[in-house]
């Protein structure tokens, strides 16, 4: 793949659907994944670490999964916060289609799987959960975080998981300097990953 799934709207490989059973929000689900996306065969370790360390999501409002892939974070948000609107955002059209398929399989009607430009500009978020695509490079990653982190509602939090050897500590330092409106803390370290919490003042 050479990382193409992180920034290609249409993956080059032929679509090959597959099924797998995963545990989300404490229950097992038989879901669909495919080639040409991030971690198509399992819930990747970083996402597992994130989901093990985040608090229960807010009971309503707009919630964001940034870089959703086939949807484990977005689907967990939707299961745990059924009265919320979950925005599953990715540039990969195949991943977005899988999120829609899986939300339908699970009977979830509160998931919007969309490209970044399809989120209305006036939408603000009660939380952001993300396993961000670090391998797109620092410039693209920073641009992504500049676009989305300021859209947190006052007093709410973003939760990010980043592999230690891929720059979690330098990213935390950059966020500290870049976003004076955010308080950034390391909340957990597990399996070579760090979970960062960024709280919007207010």
TrEMBL record:
Q: Where is the Methyltransferase small domain?
A: 30-196
Lineage top rank: taxon: Bacteria
Molecular functions per Gene Ontology: methyltransferase activity
Q: Which InterPro entries match?
A: RsmC/RlmG (IPR046977), SAM-dependent_MTases_sf (IPR029063), Small_mtfrase_dom (IPR007848)
A Pfam family reported for this protein in Swiss-Prot or TrEMBL: MTS
SUPFAM superfamilies named among the record's database cross-references: S-adenosyl-L-methionine-dependent methyltransferases
Kindly indicate whether the keyword Acetylation belongs to this entry.
no
The answer to whether the entry has keyword Methyltransferase is yes
Protein name, UniProt field: Methyltransferase
Q: Which organism is it from?
A: Herbiconiux gentiana
């Amino acid at each position: 793949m050479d990382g193409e799934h992180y920034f290609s709207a249409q993956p080059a490989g032929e679509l090959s659907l597959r099924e797998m059973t995963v545990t989300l929000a404490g229950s097992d689900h038989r879901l669909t994944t495919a080639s040409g996306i991030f971690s198509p065969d399992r819930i990747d370790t970083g996402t597992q670490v994130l989901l093990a360390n985040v608090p229960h999501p807010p009971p309503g409002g707009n919630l964001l999964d940034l870089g959703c892939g086939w949807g484990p974070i977005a689907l967990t948000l939707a299961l745990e916060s059924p009265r919320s609107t979950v925005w599953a955002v990715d540039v990969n059209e195949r991943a977005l289609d899988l999120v829609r398929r899986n939300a339908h399989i699970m009977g979830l009607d509160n998931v919007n799987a969309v490209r970044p430009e399809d989120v209305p500009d006036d939408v603000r978020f009660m939380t952001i959960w993300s396993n961000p695509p670090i391998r797109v490079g620092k410039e693209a990653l920073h641009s992504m975080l500049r676009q989305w982190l300021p859209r947190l509602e006052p007093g709410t939090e973003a939760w990010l998981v980043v592999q230690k050897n891929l720059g979690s500590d330098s990213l935390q330092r950059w966020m500290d300097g870049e976003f004076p409106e955010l308080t950034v803390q390391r909340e957990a370290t597990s399996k070579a990953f760090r979970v960062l919490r960024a709280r919007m003042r207010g």
